Amino acid sequence: MHSHPIKTDSTKMTHQQISFKHKALSYLLALLVILGGALTFENLKYQTSKSSKSTDFENKQSPHTLKYAQSSQDNKLSQKMMPLSNAVDKVNNPLKYSARELIDMILELEERNGFVFTPDDISYIQQKLQWLVDLGSDAVPAIDDFLRTQRDFVFVNFKGSERLHHGSLRLALFDVLEKIGGYQEEAILFENFKQTSNPTELAALGHYLEKKDPQYYRPFILEVARNTLASLSEEDMNNPDVGILFKILQDYGDENIVSFLEGLSNEKWRQYASIVLANMPNGKGITALVGMIQQDPDLSDTSTVFALQMLAQSSENPEAESALLESVDNHQIPDDNWPRIAQMMAGIYRFQPISPRNGFKEDYKDTLAVNRIDSDGEVVYRVKYNLTEEQIKRRLGLIEKMLTKNLSSSATDSLEQQKKMLFALYLQKTNKKQRQPIS
């Protein structure tokens, strides 16, 4: 009666198998949807957590925050669409270490006894920092995580560290972020700038940020430096790092900073104030410096004498030159001050609020010697510079003009000595032989 019993039974079995497979597939898809939702929720919680940590960032944030958000999405899309050749290159990349591992490898040197960096140690640190730069944006999360811990490895505590370009690991990682570049890196630098109270870090971070967007960052950098100075305790006021804050005011200062420094000159940090006013770009502080000297025409205060030296240091500026010549006409400069005044007019030595070796490469590329001077709780640096031919000619012209004045024998001797030294230096630079002796 049943013509094909075996076939009918096998058909029923096939339907059951198919039905079971459909159910299993449905369960699997449902599970994937649930897991996907959970992952999305966890990611949302992470993003929310990050944003809650930077609530203050909404008021003062990098101007490129929105650009970074878009750039981040573009990067994710480009990674998904990465061609096979790029993927192969990444696999064959000789950098076998993660950013976290590279940072840990540097930190291992901190545990060593002796506090000495050998030449191999210096090369080792520099290599690992360069590898972090080579990792690019892949290194940024690990660097950000380390900076958030507030931990540091202070290189300057080790003998031989002067061969490194940075005084600590944090400063070195700031430099790595700057070299990598990008919106995320800029946001991290700015966040650290807002959180730190370390003058050295403020100077380094301000330097990087100001290069990226001077119009946006400069006012904020000045505000932070000024507020930090105003909040210093009596004990901190004599800290040598205070000079770094004045260097920030010197580099980025405007008319408002000049007024701030004039107020300081009547209270504390008078030498710092004089140095900054003399060294501000485009002679912005010369008028205020002249005003400080005019308030004490008898030079009864040592800070006024120092301000006069700073005016001589800035005598390439027409306003400073005119004020200095007027001081000579008024016989305002005592004989015992002329050796220092003449030396500053020669321009070989300059006073600075920090050692150029604690700054950036461009700060010390022309330096020949650095002397630290402690005076009344202020630490300043007298730096010997390698003058150019043009600078020497201008300084010689100024001294010759000064020698036409009615001077004392002490003033004349001091100026002639500096003139002779400058002329010998000029001959040395131009490879010219002196045809007649200088009287």
Give a concise summary.
With 439 residues, the chain is mainly alpha-helical. It has helices at 5-53, 65-80, 84-91, 99-107, 119-135, 140-148, 169-180, 183-195, 199-212, 214-230, 242-252, 255-265, 270-279, 286-294, 302-313, 318-329, 338-346, 361-364, 389-403, 409-430; strands spanning 349-352, 367-375, 378-385.
Write the layout of secondary structure elements.
Layout: H1 5-53, H2 65-80, H3 84-91, H4 99-107, H5 119-135, H6 140-148, H7 169-180, H8 183-195, H9 199-212, H10 214-230, H11 242-252, H12 255-265, H13 270-279, H14 286-294, H15 302-313, H16 318-329, H17 338-346, E1 349-352, H18 361-364, E2 367-375, E3 378-385, H19 389-403, H20 409-430
Helix pairs in contact: 4-5, 5-7, 6-8, 7-8, 7-9, 8-9, 9-10, 9-11, 10-11, 11-13, 12-13, 13-15, 14-15, 15-17, 17-20, 19-20
Structural overview:
It is a single chain. This protein has 20 helices and 3 strands. The protein has a domain at 93-195. It has a 3-stranded antiparallel β-sheet. With 439 residues, it is mainly alpha-helical. Strand 2 (367-375) and strand 3 (378-385) form a beta hairpin. Helix 6 (140-148) runs parallel beside helix 8 (183-195), helix 10 runs antiparallel to helix 11 (242-252) and helix 19 packs antiparallel against helix 20.
**How much helix, percentage-wise, in residues?**
55-70%
Q: Note the run of SSEs as H and E.
A: HHHHHHHHHHHHHHHHHEHEEHH
Radius of gyration, rounded?
Answer: 33 Å
Biggest beta-sheet profile: 3 strands, antiparallel
Structural class: mainly alpha
